[in-house]
Each structure stands twice: as C-alpha cells, then as structure tokens.
Amino acid sequence: MKNWYYFTNHEVIPEGEIKTQPSRASALAQIPKTFVFPKTYPNSVRVPLPANPPVVSVPTDITPERVRQLAYAINDPAGGYKVQSLIGLHVSAPYLHDGGVAAGAEALKQDSKGRYVVANSEQLGLGGTSISNIPPDPEASLRVLLDRDLRELAIANN
Predict the structure, then answer these.
(1) In whole angstroms, what is the distance from residue 51 CA to residue 64 CA?
(2) Can you say whether residue 53 is alpha, beta or left, with left for phi > 0 and alpha for psi between -120 and 50 degrees?
(3) Could you say which of 3, 26, 99, 148 would form a disulfide bridge with 94 (CB–CB 3.0 to 4.6 Å)?
(4) Average of pLDDT values for 57-62?
C-alpha cells in the first residue's frame, strides 16, 4: 500500500541492501512469538465499558506477508528496516536505522559564516547522547544527518 499522505511507502528494505549490522533483526525475530491477533471495540461502545462489550478484529492484511516477515527476520535471518514516515521527522531524533546520527542541543554552533560546526563533540553520536542520558536534539540531529562532514564525525563518535 503506497499512501502519499503518510509520506512513506511502508516498504521494508532488506538488510543486505542497506548493508548494515544485522544484529537488530536477530533481536526482533523473537517478537512475533508474543503477538496476539489485535482486537478492539466498535465505536458504538461507550466508556466505561459495559460488562461484556462486543469485540471486533482489527484487519492485519494491509501489510503484505513478505513485508511482515522481512521486518521481523522470519525466513531471512538478516531481516530489514522499515521506511519511516516523514511526518514528525523534525521531532523524532535520533536518525538512521540505528539512531547513529544523534546530536545533543549543545553539540553544534554557527561559525562566523553561518555554517554549523561542532561545538561539543562529547554530544555527538549515540555515546554522546542516548547512552550518556543526553536527549538527542531533533534540530541538531537533522543538521548532522544532512551535512556530510558533521555526519561523518557523529558516526565516528559511535
């Protein structure tokens, strides 16, 4: 299903195509064993719920089986990564499949020419943010993602 209004194609890209560390997929392979068929209440049911409210099944056939299997490393031990939506991207740091492009709020500053440079390398990458309990700053992280030189420094810090 390709819905332009979600700003994603909902595809799962095989790990072999991305060429990254497949350990994430191995970890996700156990998750489907915990799944149950999703159910909900009809919109006619009021809250608080009555004693025995009617229940309806939530359709799951909107995602092709091959995509679900790839996302959870079923039949392919390397798995894959879902194409994220662009909606809310500006507040969803850190970025990349592994969160490796992250920057804290104090990581960057503008130089005299208006370019962004590293002000605090201790706040670059996962080690300088999430692992150090410093929240990744969405604006700084997006700048690092889009600037090749800054991105290389953040990845090196990982």
Answers:
(1) 36
(2) beta
(3) 99
(4) 84
- Return the SS3 of 72: coil
Is the pLDDT confidence value at 4 over 70?
Answer: no
Residue type for position 151: R
**Rounded Cα–Cα distance for residues 97 and 94 (Å):** 9
79-129: pLDDT as tens digits: 888 888 888 877 778 887 677 889 999 999 999 999 999 999 999 988 889
Report the C-alpha gap between 110 and 120 in whole angstroms.
12
Q: pTM (2 decimals)?
A: 0.57
Read off φ and ψ for residue 68, nearest 5 degrees.
-60, -45
* Distance between CA atoms of residues 146 and 89, nearest Å: 13
